[in-house]
Amino acid sequence: MAAQVRLPGRDEPLVIPQPDWAASYPPPVSRRVFAAAHVAARPAAGDAVIDWESTMRFRDQLWAHGFGVAEAMDTSQRGMGLSWEQARELITRSAARAAQRRAAGSAAALACGAGTDQLADGHSYPLPEIIGAYAEQMAFVQSAGAGVILMASRALAVSARDARDYLEVYGELLKQGDQPVILHWLGDAFDPALHGYWGSADFDTAADTVVELIERAGGQVDGIKLSVLDAGREVALRRRLPAGVRLYTGDDFNYAELIRGDATGHSDALLGAFAAITAPAAAALAALDRGDTDGYDAAIGPTVPLSRLIFEPPTSRYKVGVAFLAWLNGWQPHFAMLGGLQRERPARHLLRVAELAAAARALTNPGLAAERLTDLLAQLAGPERV
Question: HEC profile for 129-191?
Fold first, then answer.
């Protein structure tokens, strides 16, 4: 049933409605969708540590709602608190969990990030060393039985001289794939260290390199995740991709229209936002499968203001909103993140996230959410801190 909680600065209490979403949804057939999942943590002496039980439980609920899990990506704090050693364990645990679900007859698509974060940031490396770091991670992901997402590399961004270096590195890696991989293009808003990726700061020029790489790949590219927060540029690239190659939107501002599509096509999706709006997004995708575009719009539309707030600048701190909503929904017992990242958004931001989540019907346990918001308000030491 609905619940209420009084927030500072509001004359009326915040009403958290009881949503009418189903408890689970099958994977959609009209779109291929992955949710980039975060890592739950618990407080410990000195710093937070990974809460493995909650982390895996969160993936269970993503799978139960029909999403594939995109594992060990930037949403999991890769490069912002999660080391490659921890990512290896995360991938191993998620692959085992997915195998258990599939053995029991449940869907559990899994694709994992392979990058170069064994190499220290800010240094230039010979291309063979970058290829070797990538290849090590790629082999590990494939040995776990998961699909590969070739993550954008900070080391390559520093070391590459031009587009030819990107074509050389990725061309060599694509030869090592045991199945088609997903490429990963992360814009400056998400990680300024990736400025000029693909050999140019000009989007169209960089897109030329991406298209050339995919055309050379001989079917070894399943698709590309694009996260540049520009719907026009995404549509332009989508129209240039060879037949059968997917554009996975990573646009957490404009995903509703991009997934819905137009007369020329649509985007599939690999989104951190899905980890925050799981239930309404699953309902929207189910409506799209039925050809009910009005139902799709009604379910997905209210989530867009919420996602835009979660991903507001500095965009790299969006993981805070994802973990906050996971806590409000009961998927983890503590609002804690690796490296204390939960402190990187002020209290007023979090309370606004809660308001918009209620409006989007993304709070699936109203009573628990109200209880935890009340506890949070009692802990506030000032208007800017939790």
Answer: HHHHHHHHHHHHHHHCCCEEEECCCHHHHHHCCCHHHHHHHHHHHHCCCCCCEEEEEECCCCC
pLDDT band at residue 263 using 50, 70 and 90 as cut-offs:
very high
pLDDT of residue 139: 98
DSSP summary character for residue 78 = B
The pairing of strands 49-50 and 41-42 is: antiparallel
pTM recorded for the entire structure: 0.96
- Tokens matching residue 352: 């606004």
Number of domains in the chain: 1
pLDDT at 307 exceeding the cut of 80: yes
Residue 114 lies in a domain: yes
pLDDT of 45 reads: 79
Is 23 within a domain? no
User: Residue 284 — left, alpha, or beta (φ > 0 → left; ψ -120 to 50 → alpha)?
Assistant: alpha
What whole-number distance in Å separates Cα of residue 355 and Cα of residue 347? 12
CATH no. for residue 286?
3.20.20.70
CA 361 – CA 363 distance, rounded (Å):
6
